[in-house]
Design brief:
2 copies of one chain form a homodimer. Chain A is of the alpha/beta class. In chain A, 44% of the residues lie in helices and 16% in strands. The structure holds a DNA duplex.
DNA sequence: CTGTTAGCGCTTTCAG
DNA sequence: CTGAAAGCGCTAACAG
């Protein structure tokens, strides 16, 4: 295995010069850059991760910990998350790997932490009061949680910003001229922040409490014109019921989106898509979310070096217009 | 972060002594062993992966490369493979991680190889004439393929040993007294090695060529007594057809396993299980297979250090008796 | 813009 | 049974 010394000799420069053309951390003349690059190719040189990690301080590697990766069928959203993290981390100049946690005991986790070849850990699929959060925190390993769980102390995470999503949905409807809004819920009141937001926007919300099933949606459709005559916009927190509603709307003389604008909120991307291809949603871009999670992880690792502590919470939603939210007619 | 030097000071021994109690590579008195262990605990010492890798030569880490991990639904067999590799590798004193390959271009693979933090690569889900095999071979990275693909040169792999599986199936039937054997195939002749093996065991094989569907199996059941009166044992290469056959056998006056012994072969473990809970099979223990793959990987890495080359091919099947292969009556 | 040099923390001879 | 010391290949001051 050729080392940076071999390359240096070949190129007729010093060892550090080789390092610097590789890292770009200091200006190098084009001429030497070329010579070094040629020498690298000729020697078939490959940088040694271990040596770099040793010399550079923390290892430039982040580890994704996904529990139950192989017992639950992987969903599309998981793929987007992994891809997002990989890209975010890579853009920050780190690598990322998945650490297989076959079972739920601590052995694997401990091994990862002990071996300490990883600069930080991204925790996914966190459970309620997840023990791994406690462990990571105790062992002072830099980590970021993709999601949230209540563990009794603060930590870095990236999660969906539900309130902002609601805000986007309502302002979108407002913008389209709707003020009388029905909120599809199931056995729960309208979330407080939705209420607050609505009053700021001078919109009227009316809870429409139905079972979250296709049947529930159909039934709503059957009575909608009678019961909710004044309502022109819908914010739906339900998936299955929305399918039922949309599918049977026409049958009951309700034309969507002509008579009614619908925006689904707080559904997972996959739910939203499977719900109905024509329902507009405020959804989450899982890939982008994961990407910022990756970036945050790296930042957090680098902050740790300088003993700077940072705590970040983050995320917003995106409006996806599929044609069911339209201007009031 | 405490280092081995801190521990040494605390325990009042030399640095190398600490290393040796950790690695167990030379005899240490119980007394100092205890003192060192106490110092390690007290200091909260953790070994540094990067430093160990640097000093020790090749990094003690193997990487699993699984393509399309997140676009295909993960199956149970994949989980078994990953778990097996992890355990096999761990028993050999190495760690293992999954390298996420989101797309099929070479960028991810190159990155892995360049960063060279991994002592070896286990390739899974290989495609025909897989380019990654060429790449790994060219870059002289130690690697093992879990599966097989034709690339025009030899490499280390672990795969199912189909011939041995057939051998096991036939000898099992022979042992039970069966000599007139039907072979369930679909649009293919009986494999050559099955024929060879049968003639050595002085058994008679008869191809039973049917569609591999439940309907195909049912139809076979309906005519079996008439058409294949002399046959007492079945070797099945088909999954769906076997289900259909077994399920409708009784209806056509065929009692399994009383009248007929059935052994499924060359099915994946998952297929075999889903085929029928009472069909005996010669199947593959995916976990064990993967485990030996992990061990082989580590051996291959360590052989590389001493410039010993080894080429290994491996696997056998296991007979799983679920009661449908019984003594001739 | 480039070279010299002191480590990073560990493994492994070599010398007791 | 234990110590001392020489690196592994790289990064990052420090010194031009």
């Amino acid at each position: 295995m050729p080392t940076r010394a071999d390359v240096a000799k070949l190129a007729g420069v010093s060892e550090s010069t080789v390092s610097y053309v590789l890292s770009g951390k200091r200006p190098i003349s084009e001429a030497t850059k070329k010579r070094v690059q040629a020498a690298i190719d000729q020697a078939g040189y490959k940088s040694n991760y271990a040596a770099a990690a040793l010399a550079g301080g923390a290892p430039r590697m982040v580890t994704m910990m996904i529990s139950n990766l192989f017992t639950t069928p992987s969903s599309r959203i998981n793929g987007a998350l992994v891809d997002g993290i990989v890209d975010g981390v890579r853009e920050a100049g780190f690598h990322s790997v998945i650490w297989p946690v076959s079972n739920d005991d601590d052995a694997d986790v401990n091994l990862l932490i002990k071996s300490n070849f990883s600069g930080g850990v991204i925790l996914m699929n966190v459970k309620e009061n997840d023990q791994r959060v406690h462990l990571l925190n105790r062992e002072r390993v830099p980590f970021v949680v993709l999601g949230r769980t209540d563990v009794g102390f603060k930590y870095n995470y990236v999660d969906r910003d539900f309130e902002n999503v609601d805000r986007i949905a309502l302002s979108k409807l407002k913008e389209l001229g709707h003020t009388q809004i029905g909120v599809l819920v199931s056995d729960t009141p309208i979330p407080q922040h939705l209420m607050t937001e609505a009053s700021q926007l001078k919109m009227k919300l009316k809870a429409i409490d139905i079972p979250n099933s296709e049947a529930g949606g159909e039934e709503l459709a059957s009575i909608f014109k009678k019961e909710y005559r004044s309502i022109t916009g819908i914010v739906s927190l339900l998936d299955a019921a929305t399918i039922g509603f949309v599918n049977s709307a026409k049958e009951f003389g309700l034309s969507i989106p002509k008579d009614l604008s619908i925006i689904g909120v707080n559904m997972l991307e996959s739910q939203a898509e499977s719900t109905h291809p024509t329902i507009s949603t405020v959804t989450f871009d899982a890939y982008e979310m994961a990407k910022s999670c990756g970036k945050m992880m790296v930042e957090s690792i680098e902050a740790g070096k300088n003993n700077k502590k940072k705590r970040t919470e983050l995320w917003v939603g995106d409006f996806v217009d599929r044609g069911s939210a339209t201007h009031i007619q």
